[in-house]
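Continuing the series of single-chain predictions for the mutant panel. This is the parent chain; the variants come on the following pages.
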Amino acid sequence: MRVAADVGSLELAEYQKAARLVLRHPLITASYPDKSALPLVRKWVRQLRADFGEVLGYMLLSSGDTIRLRRVQDTLDGTRPAVTRARRPFDRRRYAYLVLALSALGRSGAQIALSELADAVAADAGRIDGVGMDTGRKPDRDAFVDAVAWLEARGALRMADGSAIEWVNDPERAEALYDIDREVVGAIYAPSRVLQHLNSVTELLDGPGGGSAPAQGREARRRGNARHARRLVLEHPVVYYADVDGELRGQLRSASLAEDIERLTGLGLERRAEGVALVSAGQRFTDVAFPSAGTVAQAALLLCARIAGYLRHHSSKIERLPAATAAERLTEAARLLVAHGVPAAPVVSEKNEVLGVISHGEILRYLLPRYAGKLSGEYTAAGAKPKGKLSVLQAREVTVRDAMDRSVLCLSEDQLLADAAALMVNKKLERMPVVREGVLVGLLTREDIVRRLFGP
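Parent structure:
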């Protein structure tokens, strides 16, 4: 069967554009990836369904205002993760919240408040070992809203009122209301198997070791290898002969593979002694352009090696943000504040997530009895033994986690400077941590704001 058999030569370029769209975006809705995608793909959906099934073994599902490509999974591939609004890869927590949010939306009506969805996800997460979600923790709220934003971008949710960003910063006062598109929610959750019957993630695979590889005859095996080889070329930028077995190697060298792929996508297949590569010279098939266009991007590319070399040789001279870790001794945090001349500093986890803040107040409250005891036999200046205070021995064992203030307010890096200034004035704060998805990236002070507004 010839690829694009019923497509005329004058329309072939349009058909190939539709094929590339589906391959880049396995879910297409009325708004995702843009409003022009759905009409274009819907025009060619019948031919695309036939070609994807025959050439790749994929299944193209079309229903109402959604088109969903169900791929065949030959291997577990972690190179193309879901990403946040800031283009950072999802971690396990965000994936868990995304799936739990889909489950909660499937049980919901036409609308849902962000706090209501968060409570439903938190309740389900609390019943799963190793997941959990505390809406009182900003890193958890950040991760949850990243999952919600992913769904919103694809049209599963549409904001009707409020602000998710404001809810993240102050869930007691802010709220957001979403309309639910149940058709899109159902299209996103489209597993190829009944998940309750799976014992491990490898059973989702369709190749060796997967859950759907029945005994095959010679011809069926040859067709399966032909589809596998074509999937390899489309799913990976370069395929090396040394990385595949002999049967796949023969398929990669076949003339029919190059003809099918080039006619389906409009892209050229280059052959080398070591393997094959699908080339997108006009960057019509890549999800990340490299290098990006423009003089600045080209100059930045030239500077990459120089910057990397500088960091390698001068890493000890790079000034670190004044931040304490939760596990270190409180005395070490006190020395950190003194060394940097600051009254307070954020407390971070091993992953640099903001957990709280430590200041002179917490340090004095926990450590003063230790030093008072040294000078006066554990008695206060007034002569009375401190009541309810830590002993000298206990004070030595206090960690930053024990003493820190957990009710810390953070700013996101894309928050407006005017909003940050108003928050600092209203809360009477001199400085605030700046985070990206819960991870500390900087500190903003009142002096920084004044310098920005009135400086040269």
